[in-house]
Amino acid sequence: MTSPRVLGPRDGHLAVLGGLGARLIIEGEDAGKHFALVEHPMQPRALAAPMHRHHREDEYSFILEGSIGALLGDTVVIGNPGDLIFKPREQWHTFWNAGDTPARILEIISPAGFENYFREAGAELSCGHPDPQRLAAIRLRYALDVDMSSVPELIQRFGLHFPRA
User: In CATH, what number does 13-158 get?
Assistant: First the structure.
């Protein structure tokens, strides 16, 4: 049984994936594998990820600060502090910091498990020269489809940059 605790603003594992951070606050083991809670700090005008889809989990992004854009299928939405953006499984999507200042979201991932993708991908990206085959194996392990060819159009369409780790 997990003990009650207070987590401070620097507690939890932090993975850096280019312009997107992933601070693992509540992991699946803490919540009976029902959900995970991840904080995503984002650099100004940073694209968080290429178009992608999850086959096993839904994501709920609660905006804490800044302005977050999201492309959900063919629909573009903008969320501001206090808003929640729902990204259902099996739907192609991406998100980005739509503003010129840092942004932060709390991401609820349900069911849990995908939070470990950030840990593994962050470790691979932190080595300086990530191996594309290892990254592909990580994506496969987490049932994640990624369309890297979407990046140039997303950058141009929304005036973003896609920082690498």
Answer: 2.60.120.10
